[in-house]
Amino acid sequence: MEKDAPTILIVEDFADSRTFLEKWLTDRNFRVLQACDGWQAVGLAVRERPSLILMDINIPVFDGIEAACMLRESEHVSNVPIVAMTAYDSADYREDARDVGFNDYLTKPIDFNHLETVINRLLAEEPAAPVSGIPDRV
Description:
Blueprint: E1 7-11, H1 15-26, E2 31-35, H2 38-48, E3 52-55, H3 64-73, E4 82-86, H4 91-100, E5 104-107, H5 112-124
Parallel strand pairs: 1-2, 1-3, 3-4, 4-5
Helix pairs in contact: 2-3
């Protein structure tokens, strides 16, 4: 892995999913951090300032919506892209994610080709405020 490799924070409560995703990301030369709940995610993100965050919505302590809202309010990481990765594929969840500033929304099971496209697109963009809308279909 390159010394200056982008860092991706995985926020997922299932250890097997975190491990699988970490392997997939490190095989693509990303540095990976892991959090298993929203509290850990916020603390780790503020401390480590990752390049991108992949966050499940249904996680303990603070759910993904609450954690993302806290991150958007932090001056240190407010512009870090956040991608929802969740089994919930409803208009309400998508709207909540859009409202708090998720940059994209992927439903599980994850299409890894699409995930790679999303990661590359978000990392290539200049840091900016979160997008105002998430497409209804990804």
